[in-house]
Amino acid sequence: MSEQELLFEIGTEEIPAGYITPALTALRQGLARGLSERNLTFGEIRSAATPRRLTVSVADLARRQPDRVEEVLGPPKKAAYDAQGQPTKAATGFAIGRGLTVEQLQVKETPKGEYLMALIEQPGRDTTALLAELLPELVLSLPFPKSMHWGTGRMLFARPLRWLLAVYDHTPLTFTLENLRAGEQTWGHRFMAPQPLTVTSFNQYLEGLRQAWVLADPTERRQAVLVEIEQAAAAHGGKILPDPELVETVANLVESPFAICGSFAEGFLALPQEVLITSMREHQKYFAVTDREGKLLPRFVAVNNTRVRDAKLAAQGHQRVLRARLEDALFFFNEDQQHPLAQLAGQLHGIIFQAKLGTMADKSARVTKLATELAQQFAPNLTETVARAAILCKADLLTGMVGEFPSLQGTIGRDYARRQGEPAAVAEAIYSHYLPLRAGDRLPADLAGAIMGIADRLDTLAGCFGIGLKVTGAADPFGLRRQTVGLIHLIQGHKIALNLTQWLSRALALYGDRLSEQPAAALARLMEFIRGRFANDLTGRGLPGEAVEAVLSVDFHELNDCRARIEALVTVGTQPAFPLLAAAFKRVNNIIKDNRDHAIDPELLKEEAERELAHALGRAEAEAAPLLAAGNYHQALLVILQMKEPVDRFFDQVMVMAEEPSLRRNRLALLTAIARLFLRVGDFSKMYALREQT
């Protein structure tokens, strides 16, 4: 049993499943921050949660704050004493105000001069008193997507609060929050054990609730959900279609899971598989059941929050609800078959893409043109496939099925295209051009879908930036961060040598006079935005920030080329000579400043060291040029690295800023030519400067 343990539980009405995990994270982080700010040492923080409670436990929490001495500055010394060295009113007033005598004051030297200083002893406060202030503040600070008032109270929370459990070192804390008084009681399952439980430690809390049909540990409850649904499916000869997200959701809908397997009419299996699965999971939170080969069975598994006496009767209730959903889906499916995608594509003018940017018909036309041009450059053999898929890719927005299940956009388009005789590659591209849907999601396996996805995202980004939409911490119209990351991953994943400046300019041009921003200004903002997302993505994947900055600060147009240069810098940067070369390059940059002249006159190379450097430069340029052109940056850097010694000797033996103007100009041109070669890969000085800072 842990000593000096804090146990805190917020008891509520049922919190929406999607709110629970973020709220629990905020509770843990807020408590850790609050304790640290109060100089209280503590050990492990554990947590628990169900739809009716958010709980944290803190081990080894100090019983009181440490005593501390606070330095309080007073008046300047010269104002605190007169010419005879006697204290002035400024000194005596400051001392009296701090409960001290003038003799107890000290003089402290500061950047602004000497000041009087009082040392005030601040005794530490007891943890119980601090927690009585901190915990109510913590409850009020928890963020939720939506909050509510209830009763006559004025506080906001996701759902009404019903109790507060607060115990420190096995002793109840005494504080109130509106009309709730904290105590040492929690409550069991609402229906199967609706009695209060007295607990004084986290382990006792978990075990007591477990006996009262509440699995408070989210990991334990999630595992229990898995066991229940798998057993329910197996009892009817099937297995659960894997769905980790639904498991997570269901685990946050119940306090104890009890699974029931139900069935539906086999006729509904005529629906597309994705429609069946979505009908079950999105509205009802039911799990789909398959046979051993993965084929859908006319069965489902529902998870209840209570044990039912009559499983058959309970299953019938779930079946009635699901049947109504599936009948709606079957109706929409049959109606949709009367209107081919090619017909619906001509009716997209009825859907607004963005008020200033026109309709989905306008967007579809732009994406079709842009995707076709991309295909002509990067995959000529796919041009016909891309053109046809681009025409049809937004048509399923007008289907009844997507109207009922918006998450099936693209999925329905693929299924209907197959049924309507479109080529398999066209159908797949209609679906895959939406991928990746989120960070970490899979990329399109087909190049046609990737090209369409790039065109779609280029169009959205160009349009939104072209009318001046801004992305801030609080606002991200059209999910532009997500769109950008998706664009980056598509280009890298399929290794498409796409010049962003060129193709974004083309995307902006396709909007014609719809844009309110000057295309050049919109392009500059957009390139900087993509550059920031690209840098974050690369550092998030483990590439050093200094290498990323060294490359992206020089050139940012083709993502795969940028990444190749960064990876080469990282590899070659481990060579002992590289930091010295980077330092030399920094010196070169500082000397040449804004000089652009790189034409070297061999007749003006007077010193042996500068002739040697010019020769080394010529040799390096000749060897590196084909390597750089082929994108073999690693070998090119190894060639450039050979210039370290000639550069060092040049700086040791040659006066760059010679008095004679022609010599000075020629030596600056030599250094500028060296800088131009180095910058073909990156700004080495960025790596050197960043290392100096760290």
Keyphrases for this structure?
18 strands, disordered C terminus, 27 helices, 694 residues, 5-stranded antiparallel sheet, 4-stranded antiparallel sheet, 5 domains, 51% helix, alpha+beta
Characterization of this structure:
With 694 residues, the protein is of the alpha+beta class. It folds into five domains: 6-64 and 126-211, no CATH class; 70-122, no CATH class; 218-336, no CATH class; 343-542, Hypothetical protein af1432 (Orthogonal Bundle), CATH 1.10.3210; 573-693, Isoleucyl-tRNA Synthetase, Domain 1 (Orthogonal Bundle), CATH 1.10.730. Helix content is 51%, strand content 13%. The protein has 27 helices and 18 strands. Strands 2-3-1-7-8 form a five-stranded antiparallel sheet, with helices on one face. A four-stranded antiparallel sheet has the order 13-15-16-14, sandwiched between helices. A hairpin with a 2-residue loop joins strand 5 and strand 6. The radius of gyration is 35 Å and the shape is flat. Mean pLDDT is 92; it is low at 689-694.
